[in-house]
Amino acid sequence: MGSSSNTNTSGGGSDKEEKEDKGKGKDSSEPSFKEGDRVLAYHGPLLYEAKVQRIENLEDEWRYFVHYLGWNKNWDEWVANDRLLKLTDENIRKQQELEKNQVVDKTVKSGRSTQHKLKGANADAKADKDDTKNLVKGKKRKTQPGTEEKEKRSSESLLVSQFPLTLKKQLVDDWENVTQLGKLVKLPRSPTVDDILKRYLEHRAKKDNKINDSYAEILKGLRCYFDKALPAMLLYKKERDQYTEEVKGDISPSTVYGAEHLLRLFVKLPELLAFVNMEEDALNKLQQKLLDILKFLQKNQSTFFISVYDDRKGADGSKSK
In 3-state terms, the chain is what percent helix, strand and coil (to 5)? Predict the structure, then answer.
């Protein structure tokens, strides 16, 4: 997601605002938020929708354990009052404005960097092909002591900061349907992950007026990542029985699951890309291509994603563990 949770940033608010917010948490007999509240939480410079799971009073200051909706529970953390905002229309507009400013800032920086690109189309094509091969092979990046955190932040930056807002909402709805309502995505999906990736390649070929080898390699890598990552990190607990029933023998998950689970992979990609062996410039170029795939998902959101989840297994979770 954003920057390290150890940084107690409030997203660039004024000192006066910070002091006022912190004052609400200190020496207050009542917490500002309660368990189960939906809130907006700062993580780095951006705001994310979250749910308060636990609260505690430590040395006369209230702290809140939050889960970022649509994100892996590994991001769950304790935060102070100054990291949280109420989920109001005004604060949602503030969230959108922060994201918009972040995208503009990244675009400006990206525009400057284009002045230093490799000369010649052949050099660019070779670099793209080498970079995408690394994604397919999944090579671990060689790091020097003290550089791991810096590289990890770099690998997260573009995908996190420019993740389309409507797809974030899709992730939240997906999380609520499965974990809170006990509903499941009906399988097999149509279109499948394989279908979506093939459609995207056709879309790029039409747009570029040729088959783009670098995108073909990336899609091959994404399919491989999806098949391996799905049972390991993309399923909620209540979906595991369904996976066992649907994916048997030599069946690939990418031929059974669809856009809902593919989108979950994009949430995990920053974490996975931290271990890919590439230089920072090449990694940024790869992320730009991955963002283009995300925009394709967003453009076809009403076609690729389901609006109604299957409750035939029972919302009480009788057959889901």
Answer: 55, 10, 30
Q: Cα separation of 96 and 163, whole Å?
A: 12
Query: 97-154, pLDDT tens digit by residue?
Result: 887 776 555 444 444 444 443 334 344 444 444 444 444 444 444 444 444 444 444 4
Cα(49)–Cα(68) distance, rounded to whole angstroms?
6
Residue 153's identity, in one-letter code, is R
Q: Is 67 helix (H, G, I), strand (E, B) or coil?
A: strand
Of 254, 227, 292, 267, which is closest to residue 69 (Cα–Cα)? 267
* CA–CA gap between residue 45 and residue 11 (Å, rounded): 4
Please report, for the chain, how many H helices and E strands are present, in that order: 11, 5
DSSP 310: B
Q: What's the pTM?
A: 0.56
Query: What does DSSP assign to residue 53?
Result: E
User: What is the identity of the amino acid at 17?
Assistant: E
Which pLDDT value is given to residue 292?
Answer: 93
Two tokens, residue 274: 């931290």
Which tokens in the block code for residue 8? Answer: 């107690």
Higher pLDDT, 132 or 198: 198
Distance CA 246, CA 250 (A): 11
Share of the chain above pLDDT 90, in %: 39
